[in-house]
Design a protein that fits this description.
13 helices, 5-stranded mixed sheet, Spore Coat Polysaccharide Biosynthesis Protein SpsA, Chain A, 2 domains, 5-stranded parallel sheet, 352 residues, alpha/beta, Rossmann fold, elongated, 23% strand
Length: 352
């Protein structure tokens, strides 16, 4: 390689050679920046290791292959790659992805535009951007990039199918936590740790990577259910249950300070629903009106009458942890429904 890698891409495989080969070929075809591809075989019993060993470096991609004699699990396998990495950026990539032109360029451009970002996903089908009927993967990705170049949206957590992190964050926060060995919730934990360190996390909306999903998990006994439950228990003991907040605006519109308060709550890990009787169309317009970064942890609910809002709060399947509302005679009904009520001025300090 004539140029130093700008990103080390770590790809871990455990069997599924055909899927892995398709992923690697897609990566080599659609990644034009100089990178190092760190391929780790986790003691496959098919010919995946032989395929990895056959790969050669190209002018734009240095290939480094690690063949493990035992299955280290996802977390330790990825950490093995992180230890070997040295480029300015690190990307943890599943072996069931299909890449598209410009995916990495767009991610690095968003990092450069927003230096406060600590962790990024590309846009993807498993983040809601599913390819419309009649469009190819490449055509859809090109459309998204044209519309969303340089666009960043915050998310409550990043998803581990393809996560990019700057080297400085790896040095500060460390690698994946082996509390979650062999897999599951290590990505959510990493998101929380980076967020707690003061960085933003989210998605580069103009970069698109398609994800097949659950390829390796299907090889586990009971499809990984017991491993999932164990890791979830570890995560909940460490971080607590997912908390949801209903933020009722005292006026008929969402004011800038109210939106800022909700963004601050979302960055603390809450899922926030902003309820107002006069939301604009589309409801998420306040982000644009007030020049704020869009946060996918914030949703909006337009109600006509207070009883409608009460019914939503009481009977919502995923229950609210708290209601943030100005003093009102209606608050007694929230309390009767065993919902904690906090005034807006106290919300940021009083919810935990």
């Amino acid at each position: 390689m004539s140029n130093a890698p700008v990103c080390d891409v770590i790809m871990l495989a455990w069997n599924k050679r055909e899927t892995t080969q398709r992923c690697v070929e897609s990566y080599l075809l659609h990644t034009q920046l100089p990178t190092r591809l760190i391929l780790i075989d986790n003691a496959s019993t098919d010919d995946t290791a032989a395929y990895f060993a056959s790969l050669k470096s190209t002018p734009f991609c240095e290939v480094l292959t690690i063949i493990n004699v035992e299955n280290l699990g996802f977390v330790r396998g990825m950490n093995q790659g992180i230890t070997l990495s040295s480029a300015p950026y690190v990307c943890l990539a599943n072996n069931d992805l299909l890449f598209t032109d410009g995916w990495l360029e767009e991610i690095l451009a968003v990092f450069a535009k927003y230096p406060q970002i600590g962790l990024l996903n590309p846009n993807s089908n498993n983040l809601g951007a599913r390819i419309p009927d009649g469009l190819s993967l490449e055509a859809y990705a090109a459309q998204l990039q044209a519309i969303n170049t340089g666009s960043f949206v915050e998310m409550p957590d990043c998803v581990g199918f393809c996560m990019c992190v700057p080297r400085k964050i790896v040095k500060e926060v460390g690698s994946l936590s082996e509390e979650f060995q062999p897999m599951f919730f290590e990505d959510t934990d990493y998101s929380k740790r980076i967020s707690r360190a003061g960085y933003l996390i989210g998605m580069a909306r103009g970069a698109y990577v398609w994800h097949k999903e659950h390829v390796s998990m299907k090889q586990l006994s009971d499809n990984g259910e017991s491993v999932f439950m164990k890791s979830r228990s570890v995560f909940q003991k460490k971080w607590g249950q997912v908390s949801r907040v209903l933020y009722v605006t005292p006026s008929r519109r969402v004011e800038p300070d109210e939106l800022d308060a909700c963004i601050a709550l979302a960055r603390k890990g809450y899922y926030v629903t902003i309820a107002s009787s006069q939301l604009p169309d589309p409801p998420g317009l306040p982000f644009k009106q007030y020049d704020r970064l869009v946060h996918y942890g914030i949703s909006f609910f337009r109600y006509r009458y207070m009883p409608q809002l009460l019914l939503r709060a009481i009977f919502k399947k995923k229950k609210y942890h708290a209601v943030v509302a100005a003093p009102s005679s209606w608050n007694v009904f929230f309390k009767l429904a065993n919902l904690r009520v906090t005034e807006p001025g106290e919300a940021l300090n009083g919810l935990r």
